[in-house]
Design a protein that fits this description.
576 residues; nine-stranded mixed beta sheet; six-stranded mixed beta sheet; 14 helices; globular; binds adenosine-5'-triphosphate; binds magnesium ion
Length: 576
């Protein structure tokens, strides 16, 4: 049964708009969520959602739920509290590091607050799925997650408590996983399209979640913390952590010369050395020393002088967790008989990782492991050895690894990520099914996350102006607000009540601003909050004419009351 739309009198609402946001808010979505009274900070990275904010959040969730259900996924709800034992079984109790919020109960049993739920869902399916006939299955939830982020910031973008839609697919084999993954990929495209977001899908690193295939869904935005590298010619697109480029064969086919020790007093940086020796930065190789906390050993990482090391690629090469790689200290470097600023691979005797570009270079300049000296004409394999990997950060104008055209770069906000997990969790947690011969076969898994609250911020980043938020109609907290210039005036009150009551019988969600305040004050509030349509009743109330303002374009239309009612009804009926 349909009870009509939602109607609200502004005098009865919790409208907590602010003139100013706190200083710590520097990006638009953070500033506007606070100023519009949608959220309030409790402690760093933890927020309360006020009524207007929650209405929009619920609408975003409903779109996600709708598309997940259409894709045949089944919604459940699991606890944020997770027992240590399951995390030990997967090996992540140790590996996840300080971001995991851990606690003990009164019996000294250890738990964590879930940052993600692979272990829980794997264990659940292990216990509930009795036959391979029940596979494939995809389970999802919308639930609060906890991560003790080093630097919680930007409001809902990087919280310590946030809301995630997470789902997990369970298939008989690799081929099934590929189908489940493809379906989720398409479902995410539908979700972000319905949310009106301008986004790009990129290849991604798998990080602490693991597995061997992944994509991220990025909202394009200058405030994004991710760099997207992409090619306009062949559609290659990857997150900066994962992005690859063609090797620049700057030094190919050069005859190897004799190595020489040269005095470079106090010249430590690549810039200083290239200036002093009058060489291109591309002739010099950067030698960075890191400590691998997993085995406590030092590691030398080498990239060309004009390049930067990509720590994620180093972590993957070493097969360790993100928090297990730290830069070495000056003391660490003395310990290996070298000097800060003069480190090099020749005679160093520690594990050495060489960027693939360096492996092709000849007659390079490196530190001599001797204070104030560098070596020139050093050659890989002849003078030093190491394991070769892709270790460098890709930059704009590097060439596409697929088609060789110049790469472009853009900033993005990671709203969602999907992973092919394979048997990474089902093997250790013994989540198996029996094949026809009675063998226990590990279930092949995928996992799929959307940061719901971060997505809400991303929408604001892409939809705002100097006056405030511009909510797309389908997720606005309310569709329309009626602002009487003076609600005490009989004609104006009559007109306002007429439209309000007529829309009450429809699906339109409507506010009547019956507050005792100046019209200018009211308009400011609704523009800040981002209500898509503002109907003003005033000057021409005697002619049954109102003014309808579209929040996005700020365009104003003069319409009869009935025309305004029809217009709004139609817009709301067309919501997808
Ligand atoms: P990031 O690299 O930004 O830290 P992540 O890759 O660790 O994120 P996932 O584990 O892939 O995140 O989590 C799924 C989604 O949850 C992310 O795509 C993102 O939208 C959201 N998310 C992750 N961390 C946070 C956070 N601290 N605050 C808000 N949303 C988050
Ligand atoms: Mg991610």
């Amino acid at each position: 049964m349909f009870y009509g739309g939602i109607t609200m009198k502004a005098s009865k609402m919790l409208i907590s708009t602010l003139k100013e946001a706190p200083n710590e808010a520097i990006i638009s979505s953070h500033i506007l969520l606070i100023r519009a009274g949608m959220i309030r900070k409790l402690v760093a990275g933890v927020y309360n959602y006020l009524p207007l904010g929650l209405r929009t959040l619920n609408k975003i969730e409903n779109i996600i739920i709708d598309e997940m259900d259409r894709a045949g996924a089944l919604q459940i709800l699991s606890s944020a509290i997770q027992p240590k034992e399951l995390w030990e079984a997967s090996g992540r109790w140790q590996k996840y590091g300080p971001e995991l919020m851990r606690f003990k109960d009164r019996h000294n049993r250890e738990f964590c607050l879930g940052p993600t739920h692979e272990e829980i869902f794997t264990d659940l399916v292990k216990n509930e799925i009795k036959s391979r006939k029940n596979l494939p299955i995809n389970l999802y939830q919308i639930q609060t997650k906890y991560r003790d982020e080093l630097r919680p910031r930007f409001g809902l973008m990087r919280g310590r408590e946030f809301i995630m839609k997470d789902s997990y697919s369970f298939d008989l084999n690799e081929e099934g996983l590929n189908q489940s993954y493809e379906l989720m990929y398409k479902t995410y495209e539908k979700i972000f399209t319905r949310l009106g977001i301008d986004y790009k899908v990129v290849l991604a690193d798998t990080g602490a979640i693991g597995g061997d295939g992944s994509h991220q869904f990025m909202a394009l935005s200058d405030v994004g913390e991710s760099d997207i590298i992409y090619c306009e010619h062949c559609n290659y697109a990857a997150d900066e952590e994962k992005a690859q480029a063609k090797i620049d064969l700057y030094h190919d086919n050069i005859e190897e010369k004799t190595m020489e020790l040269v005095l470079t007093p106090n010249k430590k940086t690549i810039d200083e050395v290239s200036d002093f020796l009058k060489l291109n930065k591309k002739d010099i190789v950067k030698s960075m020393v890191y400590r691998n906390l997993a085995n406590n050993e030092l590691v030398l990482v080498m990239v060309r002088g004009d390049r930067e090391v990509n720590p994620i690629k180093v972590i993957n090469a070493l097969k360790i967790a993100e928090h297990e790689l730290v830069l070495a200290t000056a003391e660490d470097i003395l310990e290996i008989h070298s000097f800060e600023g003069f480190v090099g691979p020749v005679g160093l005797n520690i594990k050495t990782l060489v960027d693939e570009e360096v492996a092709y270079m000849h007659n390079i300049v490196v530190g001599a492991n001797k204070k104030d000296y560098h070596l020139t004409c050093v050659n890989f394999k002849r003078d030093f050895d190491g394991e070769v990997f892709d270790l460098r950060i890709v930059s704009k104008n590097d060439l596409c690894p697929i088609c060789g055209n110049p790469l472009k770069m853009e900033k993005g906000i990671e709203m969602g990520q999907i992973f092919k997990l394979g048997t990474k969790y089902s093997l250790p947690l013994k989540c198996t099914y029996q094949d026809e011969l009675g063998n226990n076969i590990p279930i092949v898994m995928g996992c799929y996350g959307i940061g719901v609250t971060r997505t809400m911020s991303s929408i604001i980043e892409q939809n705002h102006d100097e006056f405030g938020i511009i909510w797309p109609l389908n997720i606005a907290p309310y569709h329309v607000v009626i602002v009487p210039i003076n609600y005490e005036d009989e004609l104006i009150k009559k007109g306002s009540d007429y439209i309000y009551n007529r829309l009450n019988d429809t699906k339109v969600e409507i506010i009547l601003d019956d507050r005792e305040a100046k019209p200018g004050f009211k308009f400011k509030d609704w523009e800040l909050i981002g209500i898509p349509y503002i109907i003003t009743i005033g000057r021409k109330a005697s002619e049954n004419i109102c003014e309808l303002k579209k929040r996005r374009t700020l365009e104003k239309l003069e319409l009869s009351y009935d025309e305004a009612i029809e217009f709004i009804k139609k817009q709301v009926e067309n919501i997808k």
